[in-house]
Amino acid sequence: MEFDKIVELVGKPVRVKLAEETTLCGFLLNVDPLSLSVFLLFEEQSEEEVEFDADEKNFFIKMILGHAVKSVELDLFSDSDKLLSEEQISDIFDHIVGLNQHEANESKFEMPTKFFTVEEAKASLLGWLTKNGIQYETSNETTVKILNGSVHIEPPYFANNVICDKISFQKEVKKMVSKWRSES
Question: The whole model's pTM is what?
Answer without folding.
Answer: 0.48
